[in-house]
Amino acid sequence: MDIKAFLKLLNKYKWILVLVPLAAAVITYFLVRKLPKEYASEAQIATGIVDQSKQVVVGSNQNADYFKVNQQFANIIERMKMQRIMSILSYHLILHDLENPKTAFKPYSKIIDSLGSANLQEVIGIYREKLLKKDVLAVGDNHNKFKLYDIVSSMGYDGESIQKKLNIYRPDNSDFINVYFASVNPQLSSFVVNTLSAEFINNYGQDVNANQNNSIELLDSLLKKKEVAMNQKTAALKEFKMKNGVLNLDKQSEMVYSQISQNEERKAQAIRDIQSNQRAIADINAKLRGNGDAFMGGNTTGDNKTIVSLKNQLKIANDAYIDGNFKLSDKKKIDSISRLIDRVSARISDNNVTDPQASKQGLIQQKLALETTVSQAQGSIRSIDNELSMLKAKYNTMVPFDAGIQNYERDAELATKDYMTSLDTYNQNKTQQNVALKLQIAQVGLPGLALSSKKVMYIALAGISSFFICFFSVFILFLLDHTINNRHQLAYATKSPVLGHLNYIENTDRNIRNIWKDNKDEEYSTFKDLLRSLRFEVAEAFAKDGKKILGVTSLEENEGKSFIAGSLVYSFAMMGNKVLLIGGETKVPMSDSKEIAMRQDFQSFLVKREIQTEDLITVLNKNDASSSLLEMQNVNSLKKGFEVLKEQFDVIVIDVDSLKEINKAKEWLLFTEVNIAVFEAGRAVADEEKELIKYIREKPGFIGWVLNKAKLA
After folding, report:
1. CA dihedral over 456, 459, 463, 468, signed as positive or negative
2. Contact, 537 vs 500, CB < 8 A?
3. Per-residue pLDDT averaged across 667-684, rounded?
4. Closest to 557 in 3D by CA, of 467, 655, 466, 488
5. Residue 504 carries which DSSP code?
6. Sign of CA dihedral 56, 58, 63, 65
7. What angle do CA 663, 664, 667 make, to 5 degrees?
8. In this structure, what are the phi and psi dihedrals at residue 107, rounded to the nearest 5 degrees?
9. The predicted structure's pLDDT at residue 597
10. Could you tell me if 151 and 142 are in contact, meaning their C-beta atoms sit under 8 angstroms apart?
11. Greatest mean pLDDT among 310-324, 355-369, 445-459, 634-648
12. DSSP secondary structure letter of residue 182
């Protein structure tokens, strides 16, 4: 952004920037000078949301949730602004004024004055009834016999009017909600904040209690359903156990399995005992067979027969003991026979102390004892097998009940958990109802002193706001203004160098000779200096490669290119150069040596190849009727003609047609060596001209633009 250009624009509109804010401030002063004083009142409501001293803590979590607390305060504030609460306040205000005309907060409006005493009493009764019902006051109430909404609105007691001066907020994350209201009557301000606070607390408590009662009723109904479901599942489990004779299947099956394991261990131990004893008997038999001759002698035949008989009896007793399911009497009989065998064996041993057969008798006695033990172990194995069969049969009968009883137990457990969860929720809601949030007025609103006047603030705001409106309006005009007024803007728009600029000359009867000779007129002096600067730029371009032909064109007609071409011709002549102008602006003839004494035609020159040169300036007029330069002669012939002119003149200036007539301009630009383009200040570049700018920028020999008719500050 061009800051200098913007500052110039601000300077142009400086009086608007000064007078408009001043006028706004003066008008505001007259509007607010009779502004009545306002009186504020503020009530304070204690919520108990963050005040721990007012809370009954249920559970151990006493950390307050910051976002939840903010949400609770926001909900309370928004509920205070509800239309239903505002309507209740409106009813109280209008009833106060209608029922107490002497202490009314405001003078009666025209609508109220138009009501008769009878109608007035009827209106009071209607408002009283709507207050009891807590009806919302709306525009639809105007469709009844009385325009109830308009009556309230005419006194400024409708919800929209009240909320303009009402402010409900929570101060500094405290436990309080402040209700602030300002009006022209201190009693009115106090009445509004106190009535609004009291009515809101009353309605809020009723609403919360009603909602909690509804929730508790719903939870109670749900709890009863859960209890019925739990009882049904428990009864089904009990019935299943009683029907199948199962008290505690897990413990019973565990006991049976433990007994099976114990009996299998007893059986394994009995088998190990039998095998070890049988091995010992085999060893004794081997010894007896190997040493039979050594044990001959002694009179033990009778005792041996007795022992054999007793052993037979012992075997029979063992069988009877096992088959008799291990009766105690059978066990005693076995013990008695065993003792008899021991006595007989001892007697044989005593009788044969010195008998060589004593050793043999000892072996025989050991063999008999081992055989007795083997018989007892074999008998116990049969008993253990019977007991194992019975236990396994009992365990197998328990397996089919396991899946069924697990389903019943799972259903009963889930039903119990569901019931207990519902019971906890019910108890929690009951507790919350008893310790629910209790709002109360911590501080009533009292009539206050008059507030500081806002007249100065209104006047200042009017002046400042109007100033910024004007300022931004000028800024927007500047942003929307795409006109080119200086060299920098032209260079940015064309992306080409700008050789210079020429100031605007207001005198319509301008003449280059008068401009050059006049040293008193400031516009002429400035133009002459700027023209010399432009001449310097062109002369430097000529100095490169000995160029002499300058083409002067523009985007549009009437941008001053012809006048600039003639001015350049005159400025070069002032340097003593012999100059030729083809085309150009030819108005009033000059009387000195630099004026053209005779007008000649360029077309005639092309035919005759002759030109009558003057002292310093010669002019060849272009044939305006001709539509094309190349239609006169071919390119080679034209180039030869320009070579002839270059031999006779130091500088040749061609007033080329504007780029708008691109067909003619292209033909003339074929023969120029240096080109400049003229742009008139104060206009914007049109979209269709961007292609022409690109064309002339890319043209060989183009050295830059000249900003014409520029207004200098």
Report:
1. positive
2. yes
3. 90
4. 655
5. -
6. negative
7. 90
8. -65, 145
9. 38
10. no
11. 634-648
12. E
Non-local (6+) Cβ contacts of 565 within 8 A are 552, 581, 583, 584, 585, 653, 654, 655
What are the φ/ψ torsions at residue 357 (nearest 5 degrees)? -90, 10
State how beta strands 39-46 and 440-443 pair.
antiparallel
Asked whether residue 264 carries a pLDDT value surpassing 90, the answer given is: no
| Residue 660 near residue 557 (C-beta atoms within 8 A) | yes
pLDDT digits (tens, 9 = 90+) for 103-144: 889 898 888 888 888 888 999 999 999 999 888 888 888 888
| CA torsion through residues 318, 323, 326, 329, sign | negative
pLDDT at residue 59 is higher than 50: no
Angle (nearest 5°) at CA 332 between 328 and 336: 170
Tokens for 586? 């030819």
Q: Is the dihedral of CA 31, 33, 34, 38 positive or negative?
A: positive
Of the candidates 529, 525, 535, the one whose C-alpha atom is nearest the C-alpha of residue 499 is 535
Question: For 586, how many CA atoms within 13 A lie in the half-sphere containing its CB?
Answer: 19
Query: Does residue 44 contact residue 177 with C-beta atoms inside 8 Å?
Result: yes
Name which of 98-112, 220-234, 464-478 the model is least confident about: 220-234
Q: Across the strands, what pairs with 549?
A: 652
CB burial of residue 62 (10 Å; 0-12, 13-18, 19+): exposed
Alpha carbons 384 and 262: distance in angstroms, whole number:
10
Task: Check if the beta carbon of residue 578 is closer than 8 Å to that of residue 516.
Answer: no
Nearest in space to 107 (alpha carbons), one of 164, 155, 37: 155
Report the alpha-carbon distance of residue 71 to residue 136 in Å, rounded. 26
Q: Using DSSP, how many helices (H) and how many strands (E) does the chain show? A: 22, 12
On the question of pLDDT at 703 being above 60, the answer is: yes
Tokens of residue 471, six digits: 């300022």
Map tokens 């709002």 to a residue: 439
CB burial of 183-208 (b: ≥16 within 10 Å; e: otherwise) equals bbbbebbbbbbbbbbebbbebbeeee
Structure tokens at 455: 């007249």
Q: What is the dihedral of CA 72, 78, 83, 89, to 10 degrees?
A: 90
Tell me: the pLDDT tens digits for 282-295?
Answer: 878 777 776 544 44
Residue recorded with tokens 């436990």: 175
1: confidence class by pLDDT, cuts 50, 70, 90: low
AA identity, residue 640 = K
Q: What is the pLDDT of residues 440-459, one digit of tens each?
A: 888 888 887 777 777 888 88
Element (DSSP H or E) covering residue 169: strand 166-169
Residue 50 has pLDDT above 90, yes or no: no
DSSP structural state of residue 562: H
**Residue 633 one-letter amino acid:** Q
Q: How confident is the model at residue 245 (pLDDT cuts 50, 70, 90)?
A: low
